[in-house]
Design brief:
Blueprint (H helix, E strand, L loop, with lengths): L5 H7 L10 H23 L7 E2 L11 E5 L5 E3 L2 E3 L4 H6 L12 E5 L5 H13 L5 E3 L2 E2 L5 H4 L7
Parallel strand pairs: 1-7, 2-5, 5-6
Antiparallel strand pairs: 2-3, 3-4
Amino acid sequence: MAFSSPTRNRRRGRTPMAEINVTPLVDVMLVLLIIFMVTAPLLKAGVPVALPDSRAKTLAEQRNAVTLTLTRDGTVYLEREPLAPGELADRLASVRPGPDGKPPQVTLRADRALDYGRVMAVLGELNHAGFNAIALVTSAAAAPPEAVTGRSGTRP
């Protein structure tokens, strides 16, 4: 900070300070950065489900993707809105195609405890509605999942 002596001010009068204190600006920007870093993953999460483990590579996220979620109790959610039984086909018909005229990619999030037949029934509805680009969402695992290795996570 610039301090001026009292004798200097008396001779020339008051001189304006030509310095800007950027510390409050930096503090506010860091707080905003932390807020965005914390809230961004929460905005995308949607309906909470226990996803199966996989070591698959992550795919690039598409802008006009539609998220379909199947919970443990069998409820189907389109984005974050629950659907009544039998309503899936009607709602899929109302989804608009992307700018290139193709249907958008569907990301399917299914609970690990669901019956395979239930997941395949939803995949069949998606295929029947014309959605061929379907991404199955899993949680990342460091080691191969138990279903692949045939043993539990403990070592002998």
